[in-house]
Design brief:
Glucose Oxidase, domain 1, about 20% helix, 8 strands, 2 domains
C-alpha cells in the first residue's frame, strides 16, 4: 500500500510573481493594497500565540473529533514523515498538500481561516480540522497524542 499517492508537486516552478510595475497606477495601487491587507490578516493569525501545549485554541474549520499521534510537517520535503492516521500539524497548506489528506486523521494549522485551503480540503475529505492556532508547530511535537476537536476549535494534549 502506498501511503502517499502522487508526486510532491506538479509542473515547473513558476518562479517569483511578476512585478506590478506593468499595471496602470490605479491597478498597481489596488494590487499592493490587496497584498498588504492579506499579509496583515495572516500576521494577525500569529498574534494569538498559545502559551502551552496542553490546550490549543483556533478556528473550528472541519467538524469531527479525532485522537491520534502528532506529525509536524513544515514543508513539502517532509511529506514522507506522515503515517496513515497521523494528526497533520503544519503552518498552512496549499494545493500540493492535498495528496496527504486521504491518509490523515485530523489537521491542525498555525494560520488560516474558515475559507482557507486547509479548511476547505479538510471538509471535502471529512477530516476534523482546527486552523489558526498561532503556533501549534512550535508547541506540539512528533509522536505526542492529541484530541483534535474540529467542532469547537480545540486541540488537547493527552501526554
Amino acid at each position: 500500500m502506498e501511503a502517499h499517492p502522487g508526486a510532491d508537486s506538479y509542473g515547473k516552478n513558476p518562479g517569483p510573481p511578476p512585478s506590478f510595475a506593468a499595471f496602470p497606477p490605479e491597478v498597481r495601487y489596488m494590487m499592493e493594497a490587496l497584498i498588504w491587507a492579506t499579509n496583515l490578516v495572516f500576521a494577525a493569525g500569529h498574534d494569538h500565540a498559545q502559551k502551552n501545549d496542553k490546550e490549543l485554541r483556533g478556528i473550528a474549520a472541519s467538524p469531527g473529533v479525532f485522537t491520534g499521534s502528532v506529525r509536524i510537517i513544515m514543508n513539502e520535503s517532509e511529506f514522507d514523515k506522515l503515517q496513515p492516521g497521523d494528526v497533520l500539524v503544519c503552518p498552512i497548506t496549499s494545493p500540493v498538500w492535498s495528496v496527504l489528506f486521504p491518509s490523515v486523521g485530523a489537521l491542525v494549522t498555525d494560520t488560516g481561516g474558515i475559507l482557507s485551503h486547509p479548511a476547505i480540503i479538510a471538509r471535502e475529505y471529512r477530516v476534523p480540522a482546527v486552523v489558526a492556532t498561532g503556533n501549534a508547530t512550535s508547541l506540539l511535537h512528533d509522536g505526542q497524542t492529541v484530541i483534535v476537536d474540529g467542532n469547537n476549535g480545540v486541540v488537547r494534549s493527552l501526554d
